[in-house]
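FORM 7B: Structural annotation worksheet

SECTION A. Query
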Amino acid sequence: MFSGRLQEQYTDVTQQAETAQLGMWVFIATEVMFFGALIFSYVISRAAYPEQFRLAGHDTFILLGSINQALLITSSLTMVLAVRAAKADQQRALVLLLAATAALGLTFLGVKGYEYAQDAAAHSVPVIDYIFKPGEQRPTEIFWCFYFIATGLHAIHLSVGIVLVLMLLVRAAQGAFSPEYDAPLEVIGLYWSFVDTVWFFLFACIYPLGRAGP
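SECTION B. Predicted structure
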């Protein structure tokens, strides 16, 4: 996909690009079912224990979550602009925009790592180090289990996306992309948009919905 060479199983570059995009859409569909089931389990648990989830949600760091939301929204913009730059044959802008996308993703991981450190300091790590606060009962640990599992899986997906964007950056610096060949940018752009969309739903569940009243 990154080489720019037509593979022997395809008749032309257009067919190769369409196949790559279809493959990414199929992958995204499977991931939607995975994260959808995870979020659905959260919704069911919150409906069963609304007050306990509200108490747990108030211990999350909504400012850090909001910063990360802004970072990923901005990264989606830079990724879209990178694809547009390739179509317009703006090589310097393409390199800069891909670098900005990767940098925003890395900043997200840095903020999330700091947030995890704050959670650990507050003894909010279920099973390993969890201290119940006034009014809390066992169901609050369910909230934190969802928090760490969901955000951890998202961080893994984002890390993969950063590696892919950095690979694109290296190829872009070598002049590999042009208005006639930008399929890898579009395919990875789809993946990046998916990762950003997942965070939008996780953010809503964990922070504003998490601390909302029953």
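SECTION C. Observations
The domain at 13-206 is CATH 1.20.120.80 (Four Helix Bundle (Hemerythrin (Met), subunit A)). The radius of gyration is 20 Å.

SECTION D. Sign-off
Analyst initials: ____
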